[in-house]
Design brief:
The chain contains nine helices and no strands. With 239 residues, the chain is mainly alpha-helical. The protein has a single domain, classed as Glycerol uptake facilitator protein, CATH 1.20.1080. Helix 1 runs antiparallel to helix 5 and helix 2 (38-60) packs antiparallel against helix 7.
Amino acid sequence: MDMAYLGEYLGTAFLILLGDGVVANVVLKGTKGNSSGWIVITVGWATAVLVPALMFAGMSGAHFNPALTIALAAAGIADWGIVPGYIVAQFLGAMTGAFLVWVMHKDHFDATEDPGAQLAVFSTGPAIRNNGRNLICEIIGTFVLLFTLTAGVAQAGDGGLAALGLWRVWAVILTIGISLGGTTGYAINPARDLGPRIMHAILPMKGKGGSGWDYAWIPVCGPIIGAILGALASVAVFG
């Protein structure tokens, strides 16, 4: 079990390093990928989930997402006993990955005068602020994620993502980003948003603004609600 927690920590760290890294490459001033757009971000994030899953699925099931871990336990696919340790490992991994993104891109953070662009590297935010609808968007996006993933996991009798064929996971993340991600930035993962947001608040960044704490509950609560509903619905449909 210690190796499973290590797998969740390292996998989530890689996920955030690569996922927040692609956002940094697109939005920060002076990078080679500056202004390359939404498609680059969505492909980069889907691949950021795939790469650590290829490495660590055998160790932990490649959750890397507290909402996924909670939902699989609620659906009876994963053991509730792993949930606290997995969540701690995921948040620590997310914070580590965010720190490495800052280290790597520090010159570009310093050159970027827009505090909103700096925050966007670390955490999600709505295109149009409407708390109720933003919450619904996160619930729907994560419902799609867990309904799809749990369908394959439940049929294979596996507690993680290894049974799915990990390219299917890549496709699900990609299509959520392209089709559903434009309203809130599709956190669909509490650790992915809150861990880096904490690092944004802590790190000594030149010219940074606030960390958006008045919005931060939405990409935590929405994914957890959507994940549980998606997993339970998928098990009800597919058994």
